[in-house]
Amino acid sequence: MCGFKIFIMSLKVIFTWWNRQTFGTFLKTLIYGIYVGSDEFGNKYYKSKKGDRWVVYSGNVEATKITSDWFLWMHHTIDKIPNKNDLEKYSWEKKHIENKTGTKESYKPVKIKKNVIKKYDTWK
Question: What is the mean pLDDT of residues 26-41?
Fold first, then answer.
């Protein structure tokens, strides 16, 4: 039964590339990947001996799920691997959330119509 589950999982990875990673990324991670760490969203970060860096997303593949610290590491801006203890830097910082555009949770500003007095006359 366990072998069947592994077979089904491997088919899921091969044919549903939008679910976490492509088959090529799976092979690259398996052969060359050195696990570096993960973030609070469950994304796993890897690097190779050549200096390549990549992420395997948890759940849907969404680039905005990467926090700012890991973004800097992924783009070779910093070499220090982000630590979970260093995440809370300032009291005014908000927690990172992914981009919700196109979903039910997207930001929709409230339109307030008031009597607005214009400082100019519109062209007729």
Answer: 87
- Domain chopping of the chain, boundaries: 2-86
**Phi and psi based region of residue 92 (left: phi greater than 0; alpha: psi -120 to 50; beta: remaining):** alpha
- Residue 115 has a pLDDT of 74
pLDDT, tens only, 91-103: 887 788 888 888 8
Sheet holding 53-56, edge to edge: 34-38, 44-47, 53-56
- Six token digits for residue 7: 């077979």
Characterise 59 by phi-psi region: left (phi > 0), alpha (psi -120 to 50), beta (else): left
DSSP string, the chain: -HHHHHHHHHHHHHH-TTBS--HHHHHHHHHH-EEEEE-TT--EEEE-TTS-EEEE-SSB--GGGS-HHHHHHHTTS--SPP-GGGS---TTPPPP----TTSTTS--PPP----PPPSSPPP-
Buried residues in 1-24 as b, exposed as e (16+ CB within 10 A): eeeeeeeeeeeebeeeeeebbeee
